[in-house]
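Many introductory courses stop at the sequence. We go one step further.
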Amino acid sequence: METTERKQEVQSPSAPGKQAAKAPKVPIPKKKKKWLKRIVTLVIVVAVIVLVLRACSGGTNLTSTVAYLPSTAQMQDLVVSVSGTGAIEPLHSYRVTTLVRGEVLEAPFEEGGTVHKGDLLFRIDSTDVETAIEQARLSLETARLNYQQLLKNQADSQKNATVTATASGVITELYVDEGDMVSAGAPIADILDRDNMKLTVPFHSADAAAFYIGQPATVTVDGTLETISGSIDSIAATDSVGPGGTLVRNVTLLVPNPGALSDTSSGTAAVGTASSAASGTFEYGESKQVVAKTSGELESLTVREGDRVTEDQVIGAFDQTDMETQIQNAAIQVQNAELTLRNAQDSLEDYSITSTIDGTVIEKNYEVGDTLDTSNASTTGIAYPAVIYDMSALTFDISVNELDINKIQVGQEVEITASAVEGQTFTGKVDKVNINGTTANGSTNYPVTVLVDGTPEELKPGMNVSARIVVEDAGNVLCVPVETVSRGENGTSTVLVAGPGALDEQGALIDPSKLEAREVTLGRSDDAYVEILSGLEAGETVYSRVQGSSFMSMVG
């Protein structure tokens, strides 16, 4: 609420029913004062009689009676201010809160004592959370080992997931199709090398002892007596008993298939001058089966029966999505385990409560051995384990209406009074103007923070105070009461002044109909007075119109 402080230069008697500070009379000579009092009294008596008669006769309502009160335009000190109320608070406060529960092991502070930022207030038994931390560590280690093992197996898994030919030759049979689910060890394909034939025959042990791998040889096909050039592929390591009880050693020869040989053909061989001791049956150069090395879906198969392949050629692959999913899941498990451990370690800090400010302990509600538990505050009545105030400075907030908020600036002087400390006035300054207002009933109020000068011992936290913010000292200016000014719709302002025939010889108003409206220019104002910039001179009298019932209450 905006208020004002005034120092009048002209002291004049009050008009009937109006306080002297707000409705000064027109200055007149002392010799006319008695006559003026008699006239005013007469006017009041006549007005009362008229009102009573009208009320008794059931005539016009009392509120229809109009009276005019005079006021003098005069020079006075005008100080514009904005007022409000609030409650004293410490500069900072710390109300200890915690979500943990447990036995208080340490509480090294006392109520009324001083603590500093970072000082230990309560240490609470943390056995349960320490156990949880150890369990979280074990879970993390297990998750990491599982993840590392999967990564180690991934290379083998990728190798096993690739299907390769085990020999060079022709795919004679496929046992699976693309998209089939295959178990580890199941046959995938048969590979047969028909281009090359092997013939294993016995040679006398003495002759074979001189042979070597890759040595040229000549093979004679039984029946056709066709000769084929070849070479020694392998030599048995030991001797065996051959026909007639002689010692022989088996030698395997590798020869190209001219096209007519099969696994039912037979023949003999010669290496240099040595001939085999007996004939043998031809075998195909390679006859291998490709088997699955892992289980899963055969995602691709790039060969068909009859296709020719070379050894180690990739002919298919298993879907590795499952392995990748396992690795991804294992990585997520590691992350979750790390998060669980961090949360457990962070929660351990909650069991050591420290002060966040320097200050004085106002409340201490738990001692060593007590079970600290704020969840049942509604039952125990203990809202906070401890309360600390920083009393190095005092502050309070007031609510300022939107019509006045633009007048408030940081640093403005504030006069402070408290009903609990009668007869004393304190000072302060505007510390903060908050633009986060609260709107109710179409009007918005903004919180303004005031910082009290010094640290008065008389002011205690919680005390209600009244604040008066001096927003402008207008100095000594020409003023009239605000109720004497009428504002028009076109923005003009007027006051009523006496025209010819309105006053009698003693200056009393005798004919209100001859009052005239004079346009004036207004300046600064508050709830009681308004500054006149032009249109009036000091000492002139202006009149305010008052309804009868209001007038009677003023003079009653």
